[in-house]
Write a structure and sequence with these properties.
Elements (H helix, E strand, L loop, with lengths): L2 E5 L3 H12 L3 E6 L13 E3 L4 H11 L4 E4 L6 H14 L2 E5 L11 E5 L2 H7 L6 E4 L15 E6 L11 E4 L6 H10 L4 E5 L8 H9 L2 E5 L9 E2 L2 H10 L8
Parallel strand pairs: 1-2, 1-4, 2-3, 4-5, 5-12, 6-11, 7-8, 7-10, 8-9, 10-11
Helix pairs in contact: 1-7, 2-3, 5-6
The structure holds ligand 3Y8 and NADP nicotinamide-adenine-dinucleotide phosphate (NAP).
């Protein structure tokens, strides 16, 4: 019988938790502890880092974990790299539940950039009103520029950008909500991570309707590992050891 460690923090992880609980699979849901009150899960929850690769490997051994499902966010590259290393060290089966990256559609005006620094460089030299929808880590890079920023945080927190407007809201977000927010703040540019999935996609649709440029940051490198694109595929893998769908 599998004993699963589910690395969470995304809508897909919550859907995975519901499927595991519904199937009566023994599993533990893991949060990093980034937010004050993460949403409840239908599984036992642990919160906090493991202590690097070694700490995660120790956890896998001590908890007799047979399968690790990494359903973390595509930008959570450190924990995903740690999971690859710790699973190799302990011969624990590993599967990533990873959503497809967003691709531009008709009417999109995207500037795709490789990283945060390139996103800063892609902003105009003249003052702009920028919806900086990348959370609260990494904001320092945008300081000292002539722009007005709209920020969105999960929890209230100090921020390094003088004069920025801050909205405290937990996704998933809606197109109507993001449209109204961006119009109310007279947004001229959107900066976002290519998170994929539906939980953060609303701002892209809103930008398309408002004909606003989007500066989209590409995902960071993550070491090769088996990937499934759906909860159902992970459940098949768990029960039948089905070969993972090869991620592209
Ligand atoms: C702690 C768990 C669910 C999961 C919901 C998804 C959707 C809403 C969209 C915008 C973009 C952003 C941010 C975002 C989204 C979902 C998903 C997603 C983006 C929670 C959660 C945790 C976190 C951590 C948090 C980061 C931040 C990033 C806000 C819970 C709500 C910007 C990523 O204050 C902080 O330090 C926050 C840090 C990492 C990125 C950053 O650098 O600030 N997510 N988000 C997880 C943990 O502790 O392990 O509190 O309930 C989860 C969700 N956030 O089940 O419904 O699946 O992506 N999260 C980004 O995509 O750019 C918001 O505002 O448009
Ligand atoms: P990260 O940079 O990849 O990880 C940094 C450290 O945080 C890891 O080394 C690990 O600490 C700990 N950690 C991360 N995720 C964890 C988890 N699910 N359970 C236990 N420890 C975890 O991670 P991040 O980008 O800060 O993301 C943290 C959490 O927020 C993840 O659950 C992720 O899914 C969620 N999230 C992130 C984003 C984003 O934009 N980055 C967006 C939405 C949700 P140790 O080394 O001590 O084990």
């Amino acid at each position: 019988m599998p004993r699963v460690l589910l690395l969470g923090g995304t809508s897909e992880a919550s859907a995975m938790a519901r499927a595991l609980a519904g199937a009566g699979v023994e599993a533990v849901f893991s949060y990093a502890g980034r937010t004050a009150s993460p949403i409840a899960q239908p599984l036992p929850v642990r919160i906090g880092g493991f202590g690097g690769v070694e700490g995660l490997a120790d956890y896998l051994r001590e908890q007799a974990i047979t399968h690790l499902v990494d359903a973390t966010h595509p930008f959570a590259a450190q924990i995903s790299a740690n999971a690859v290393a710790a699973c190799a060290q302990t011969s624990t089966a590993l599967m990533a539940l990873e959503r497809e990256a967003w691709a531009p559609q008709d009417g999109d005006d995207w500037r795709i950039v490789p990283d945060l620094e390139a996103a800063v460089a892609a902003l105009p030299s003249d003052p702009a009103r920028v919806f900086l929808a990348i959370g609260r880590q990494n904001l320092e890079a945008f300081a000292g520029l002539p722009h007005h920023y709209l920020l969105r945080f999960v929890d209230p927190a100090p921020q390094p950008l003088s004069g920025a407007s801050v909205v405290v809201d937990r996704g998933p977000f809606t197109v109507a909500g993001d449209l109204a927010l961006m119009q109310a703040h007279g947004i001229t540019h959107v900066v976002a991570k290519n998170a994929g999935g539906s939980g953060a996609a609303a701002k892209l649709e809103a930008a398309r309707r408002l004909r606003l440029p989007v500066i989209l940051i590409e995902r960071p490198f993550v070491p090769a590992r088996p990937v499934c694109r759906s909860v159902e595929a992970v459940m098949c893998w768990l029960h039948a050891g089905a070969p993972a769908e090869r991620g592209v």
